[in-house]
């Protein structure tokens, strides 16, 4: 049944939808993807994922365009990133074809929940890969479950798009170890940051910026998104083995180059922050979220401030970042030509 949700105020939260799509890997083969209406699933209490977090996930969006068409933004890239994580975890993973097919099935089954054009809302797809066989030993999953869920969402921060937010550098907790798991979208990367997020939110900061865990002198990324900055005519983003290779960031780098900007993917020292005119978080959930202020302290709760970096205005997004935002959102909505053939239509 067509849903009549408050499309302007969806936020980023779970809603009960029509169905999820499920496939199971057992005895060396994936089962035919199934439409499952009950969102509560039965798992053996010894399932590996519940104990050892043998699990990875993805995030991508489907949009209802100005022309009525439904577009998925670069699902092939998400498929390949999940495959990297599957290889890292040494567990079975879906082929690119199966991944994309199940994403399309999920949107089709939940079309009633796909936000209409014009509300700056979309359907967030969450593909999840979990080790589901019972296990006590520390061994690779022999049975794996792949689920694709879909959820109508608005803005991640809960404010109007392009509303600048503040951030704090986290110096007393490291998100990703050198040679660790930061560049893979493993579920296990996220829970350890919840406490840091709670502390940051209680102290009045919306986002957390993580630096390299060895020296804490180089910028890595935010807890939910990549970092990019504008410096003159350059698009600057950190080169680091501990950062998740963001599909949004990759796309924005291409768009910046298309606009004739210089793209610098390189080590970004914290000491360079004051040289940037615009700083943003970018990712599927956050799209482009301008950062107007980054505070640096020894610990999140410390009253002593080591550094206070302010970019542009607290009220409005910088001009270059807004141009990049409008271009990527236009491609997703079908109002800007998809020159790189990024979108797949339903
Ligand atoms: N970095 C982290 C830690 C993330 O969780 C995400 C979200 O997926 C991103 C970056 C952005 O990646 P993408 O643009 O592919 O969504
Ligand atoms: C996404 O942007 O898809 C994410 O996975 C962010 C999420 C962890 C909040």
Main beta-sheet annotation: 9 strands, antiparallel
Structural classification: alpha+beta
Q: Please provide the count of β strands.
A: 18
Instruction: Kindly state the percentage of residues in helix.
Output: 10-25%
Terminus-to-terminus distance: 19 Å
What would you say this structure looks like, in words?
- The chain is α+β, with helices and mostly antiparallel strands and 346 residues long.
- The protein folds into 2 domains: 7-153, D-amino Acid Aminotransferase, Chain A, domain 1 (2-Layer Sandwich), CATH 3.30.470; 165-333, D-amino Acid Aminotransferase, Chain A, domain 2, CATH 3.20.10.
- 21% of the residues lie in helices and 28% in strands.
- The chain contains 6 helices and 18 strands.
- Strands 1, 2, 3, 4, 5, 6, 7, 8 and 18 form a 9-stranded antiparallel β-sheet that branches. Strands 9, 10, 11, 12, 13, 14, 15, 16 and 17 form a 9-stranded mixed β-sheet that branches.
- The longest helix has 15 residues, at 75-89.
- The structure holds pyridoxal-5'-phosphate and 2-OXO-4-methylpentanoic acid.
- The site of pyridoxal-5'-phosphate has 12 residues, from helix 5.
């Amino acid at each position: 049944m067509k849903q009549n949700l408050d499309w302007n105020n969806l936020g980023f939260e779970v809603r009960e939808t029509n169905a999820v799509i499920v496939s199971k890997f057992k005895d060396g083969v994936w089962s035919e993807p199934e439409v499952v209406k009950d969102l509560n699933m039965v798992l053996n209490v010894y399932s590996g994922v519940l104990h050892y977090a043998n699990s990875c996930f993805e995030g991508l969006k489907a949009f209802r365009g100005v022309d009525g068409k439904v577009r998925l933004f670069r699902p092939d890239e998400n498929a390949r990133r999940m495959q990297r994580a599957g290889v890292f975890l040494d567990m079975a993973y879906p082929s690119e074809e199966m991944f994309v097919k199940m994403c399309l099935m999920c949107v089709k089954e939940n079309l009633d929940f796909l936000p209409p054009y014009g509300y700056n809302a979309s359907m967030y797809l969450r593909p999840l890969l979990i080790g589901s066989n019972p296990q006590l030993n520390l061994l690779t999953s022999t049975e794996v479950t792949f689920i694709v869920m879909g959820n109508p969402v608005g803005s991640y921060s809960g404010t109007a798009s392009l509303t600048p937010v503040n951030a704090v550098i986290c110096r007393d907790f490291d998100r990703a170890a050198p040679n660790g798991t930061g560049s893979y979208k493993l579920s296990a990367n996220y829970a350890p940051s919840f406490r840091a997020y709670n502390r940051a939110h209680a102290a009045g900061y919306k986002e957390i910026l993580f630096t390299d865990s060895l020296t804490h002198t180089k910028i890595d990324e935010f807890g939910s998104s990549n970092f990019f900055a504008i410096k003159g005519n350059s698009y600057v983003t950190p080169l680091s083995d501990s950062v998740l290779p963001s599909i949004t960031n990759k796309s924005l780098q291409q768009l910046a180059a298309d606009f004739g900007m210089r793209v610098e993917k390189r080590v970004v020292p914290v000491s360079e922050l004051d040289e940037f005119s615009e700083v943003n978080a970018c990712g599927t959930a956050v799209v482009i979220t301008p950062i107007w202020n980054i505070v640096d302290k020894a610990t999140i709760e410390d009253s002593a401030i080591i550094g206070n970096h302010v970019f542009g205005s607290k009220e409005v997004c910088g001009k270059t970042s807004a141009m990049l935002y409008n271009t990527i959102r236009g491609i997703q909505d079908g109002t800007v030509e998809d020159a790189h053939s990024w979108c797949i239509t339903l």
